[in-house]
Amino acid sequence: MRFHYVLTLAVLPLFIIASCGEAPQGDALQEGHGHDAEQAAAAATDYHVTGNCALEFTAADSARRAAKFAEPGVQLLQLSNGYKVFTQTVGESSDVKILTLHGGPACTHEYMKALSNVLPEAQGYEVILYDQLGSYYSDQPVEDIWNIDRWCEEVEEVRKQLGLNADNFYLLGNSWGGILGMEYALRYQNNLKGLIVCNMVTSIPEYATYNEEVLRPQMDQAILDSLEGFEASGDIQNPVFLQLVQDHFYNKHLCRLEEWPEDITGSFERLNYMLYDLMQGPSEFRVGGRLIDWDITDQLGDITVPTLMVGAEHDTMDPDKMAQQATLVANGRSLHCANGSHLCMWDDQEVFMRGVTGFIEDVEAGRPMR
Prior knowledge:
alpha/beta, 43% helix
């Protein structure tokens, strides 16, 4: 997921491909070679080609990270590939330990603090915040390692190092984190006590179709025409485009709070846009990237661990699909946040927290999901 606050930070690379014509001669041939060299140089630094999405930190960034690392409950866990990832544990419980998976890819744990702000104190649960590799508070690989299999192995390594197991381990993912949570369950559900998938359908093509056929037609036609004009020209960093997306899409479908808390705005200000674009595409308004064909709908029946599917009325994801997904897993339940959007943990918080707590209580008591 990505917001206007982030859209202003990066200018997407645009590459001009020369049309074919007669073979160049003399100086023209030299110019052609020069153009080829320029293209090759551009490709060598284009993260779409190289997969190098490493953030470069300023002195202010480094100070912010150091201050974060000094907070209570923080552990920097070293993975088998040598990189370190950020985790922060809030609360303590022997029975309910919730590992959170943020969206993006490449947002930060900060907007997931909606959970750690409430559940440890109100319910006595342990909540573990976590920045996935490539996100702001974790290490920044320069090589191209960006695929779902590796991310799942990363979560498994984090689980082991934190001592989580089927007696206590709940995995909660929002948006991209929901993709990662479901993919993890398909590989390692024997390690889970419960799975909570928030605001993520099981098919990116269906997500894109819902955007095109349901959400976009709800917009004022003049606004939609303007937005699609910017998209067609590739001018998606234009301040007018950014403000239109913020006002007419993000404020309706991502977070409906009149004022977004700093936990949200800060998280998306620090999003690693390169990694987000590589995997998700330019924005929530127009999906693309390496995830464009992702679809695990026909594998949902293989998930047997107790599962809660959380949808919201105003979400970027089809809430009916979220409810349907709960019937496709072997042991599922759905939660509908009638006043919420993509971040219903914030804008329909009471309903969200009550539903998540009820699910966990029923799992703990061994009660059926349906």
